[in-house]
Amino acid sequence: MDQANLKPFFRRLGGELRQLRMRRKLTQEDMIPFGFSARHWQQVEAGRPITLRTLIKASAAFGVLPSAVLRAAESDLRLSGAATRLGAARVPSPRSPK
Q1: Which end of the chain is more exposed for a tag (fewer CB within 10 A), N or C?
Q2: 26 burial type by CB count under 10 A (0-12 exposed, 13-18 middle, 19+ buried)
Q3: Residue 8's closest CA among 81, 90, 66?
Q4: Rounded to whole angstroms, what are the CA distances from 87 to 43, 44, 48, 82?
Q5: By C-alpha distance, which of 52, 11, 80 is closest to 88?
Q6: What's the pTM value of the predicted model, to 2 decimals?
Q7: Is the pLDDT confidence value at 4 over 70?
Q8: Domains contained in the chain, CATH given
């Protein structure tokens, strides 16, 4: 998948992380004790692609599950139609038990 196609997702993910930080009345500098430099955190919120490790560390700092952050970022993309542009696959529904 082309990295350019992921930009909308990472921008939305950065926005979700920014909202979590602001809801807790934290500054970007307040993220330092959680293992982030202020500069790195600025890049995260600006939508720079992050690793799974960064997502887990950020989620732990806010006391939320990484999956909740991902779902919030995905929901906006689905509404805007960006998920289709990202090449989102349709997930088959689980089979009924026999």
Answers
A1: C
A2: middle
A3: 81
A4: 25, 23, 19, 9
A5: 80
A6: 0.75
A7: no
A8: 3-82 (1.10.260.40)
